């Protein structure tokens, strides 16, 4: 089951780091990731809302059963063989846990993490009444590189979101 184990490991490591390093402020933690890292971001925000306050998920796969079967099946076998693993790994099933600020970013021309995989989560968050932010780059694929200025725009969006939603300085 991709998702739960890495979420637990990252949370444990973050808490341990905070005990070892006094400059780690657990009252203002952000997480971000791209692709599989975007899925980790969603799992962290939904499953550990007391620990993660801001999340940026770029082209995540919150519904793994809709993702490229060859990749999922390497780690999780088929959905018929491992239905519980697929259920546990699907961040969409834990969306009710969201309490922090979340930005999801994708491209409408995705050929890897198809937009429908993310839009199912968008619908779920709307249904739950959860506030979130969502940016879709037109006709961009998984790397969000197509079109002049795209790469810089994506990174500036990430930076602006962090600056707007994460309190500066130690608390």
Short structural description:
The protein is 43% helix and 13% strand. The chain is built from six helices and four strands; from the N terminus they run H-E-H-E-H-H-E-H-E-H. Helix 1 crosses helix 2.
Q: What coarse outline follows from CA principal-axis ratios?
A: globular
Which residues form runs of ≥5 with pLDDT under 50?
A: none
Number of helical segments with 4 or more residues: 6
What value does the average pLDDT take? 90
Q: Please compute the radius of gyration using only Cα atoms.
A: 16 Å
| Major sheet summary line | 4 strands, parallel
Q: Give the fraction of residues assigned to helices.
A: 40-55%
Describe this structure in words.
This protein is of the alpha/beta class and 171 residues long. 43% of the residues lie in helices and 13% in strands. It has six helices and four strands, in the order αβαβααβαβα. Strands 1-2-3-4 form a four-stranded parallel β-sheet, with helices on both faces. β1, α2 and β2 form a beta-alpha-beta unit. α1 packs across α2.
């Amino acid at each position: 089951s991709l998702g739960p184990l890495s979420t637990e490991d990252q949370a444990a490591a973050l808490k341990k780091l905070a005990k070892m390093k006094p400059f780690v402020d657990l009252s203002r933690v952000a997480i971000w990731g791209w692709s599989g890292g975007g899925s980790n971001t969603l799992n962290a925000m939904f499953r550990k809302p007391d620990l993660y306050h801001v999340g940026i998920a770029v082209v995540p796969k919150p519904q793994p059963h809709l993702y490229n079967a060859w990749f999922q099946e390497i780690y999780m076998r088929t959905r018929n063989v491992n239905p519980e693993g697929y259920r546990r790994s699907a961040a969409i099933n834990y969306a009710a846990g969201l309490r922090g600020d979340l930005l999801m970013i994708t491209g409408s021309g995705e050929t890897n993490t198809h937009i429908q995989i993310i839009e199912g989560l968008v619908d779920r968050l709307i249904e739950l009444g959860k506030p979130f932010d969502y940016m879709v780059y037109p006709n961009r694929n998984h790397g969000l590189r197509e079109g002049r200025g795209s790469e810089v725009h994506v990174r500036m969006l990430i930076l602006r979101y962090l600056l707007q939603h994460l309190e500066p300085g130690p608390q």
